[in-house]
Amino acid sequence: MERIDAINVLNDVSGAVHLLEGPNRIREFLRQVLRFQPVPLHSIARSTSLTVPVASALRRELEKRKLVARKGGIVLTEYGNSLLASVGVTKTQIPRLQSGYPFPSWLNPVVEKLDALLSSRPTPDFSLDQSHAETLTIAMRVAYLYEHDGVEGKELLFLGDDDLTS
After folding, report:
1. Nearest residue to 142 (alpha-carbon basis) of 114, 100, 162
2. Is the pLDDT assigned to residue 12 strictly greater than 70?
3. What is the pLDDT of residues 47-76, one digit of tens each?
4. Distance, CA of 82 to CA of 2 (rounded, Å)
5. In 10 A of CB 151, how many CB atoms?
6. How far apart are CA 39 and CA 23, in angstroms?
7. pTM for this structure?
8. Which among 140, 5, 141, 14 is positioned nearest to 85, based on CA atoms?
9. Which of 80, 85, 100, 136 could be bridged to 76 by S-S, CB 3.0 to 4.6 A?
10. Closest among 30, 1, 32 to 13, alpha carbons compared
11. DSSP label of 102
12. Are 95 and 106 contacting, i.e. CB atoms less than 8 angstroms apart?
């Protein structure tokens, strides 16, 4: 499926269910199904901040369009998977982050790669820089963004200076 076609489907579904949050909420709903399928409707409603009646109406519309099906919960169809892939959302699973600030060991390979990539950056000038981010912090920030639907299928622009805190 072409990206523009997928975006049009998301817009059409959003219009059909009169969802004020628009197509991004439809994408988020489908992403949650992808990550946790088969998933109960009330779980998707909670994770997407939709009321159960709105989530139910959305599920019915997605079923009409053959994007999801009911199989012990909501699951994506092949067409639903294709649509998500077209907008940059894939079945990449990362372990859930723990609350608080413990650093998860599964991020160690990411930190090692970041350390190698960033080894030539200048040292921070603490007379100018308010703080200095370490690669551990960067990895946690990216994992947090990913877990909270801030990466997949999004158009991102990262700005920052050489101390990596922006």
Report:
1. 114
2. yes
3. 888 999 999 999 999 999 999 999 999 999
4. 9
5. 16
6. 21
7. 0.62
8. 5
9. 80
10. 30
11. P
12. yes
Total number of residues shown for the chain: 166
CA-nearest of 64, 85, 84, 88 to 155 is 88
What is d(CA 26, CA 11) in angstroms, rounded to the nearest whole number? Answer: 9
Domain 3-86, classified CATH 3.30.70.1290, yes or no: no
Three-class secondary structure of residue 68 per DSSP = strand
Element (H, E) at 33: helix 23-36
Other Cβ atoms closer than 10 A to 68? 26
Q: Which amino acid is at 101?
A: Y
Q: Minimal CA–CA distance to 162: which of 129, 121, 115, 133? A: 121
What are the structure tokens assigned to 161, written together?
């200076």
More confidently predicted of 165 and 81: 81
Tell me which amino acid residue 124 is: P
Q: Where are the domains of the chain?
A: 3-86, 94-166
pLDDT of residue 98: 63
